[in-house]
Design goal:
Layout: H1 2-14, E1 18-23, H2 35-52, E2 57-62
Parallel strand pairs: 1-2
Helix pairs in contact: 1-2
Length: 70
């Protein structure tokens, strides 16, 4: 996540947009699955948010969601 945010920080600054992220404490750094694909998806979503943003701020919040609690 840090690498993805860092790579997009300059793009956000060029557009005068604040880019921040918050990762919930109970989330592991270990990804089960395709971490490259996840990074690509996050990067694309965040870059679109920066490009279409009108509020001068993009917040990325990562939380653990347990579908069994629904």
């Amino acid at each position: 996540m840090k690498d993805t945010i860092s790579s997009l920080k300059e793009m956000a600054e060029d557009r005068e947009i604040s880019l921040s992220y918050n990762v919930q404490d109970n989330i592991n750094d270990i990804v089960i699955g395709d971490s490259c694909l996840l990074q690509t998806i996050l990067s694309q979503l965040i870059s679109v948010a920066i490009r279409v943003n009108k509020s001068c701020q993009v917040d990325v919040i990562v939380r653990l969601f347990n579908r069994w609690l629904m």
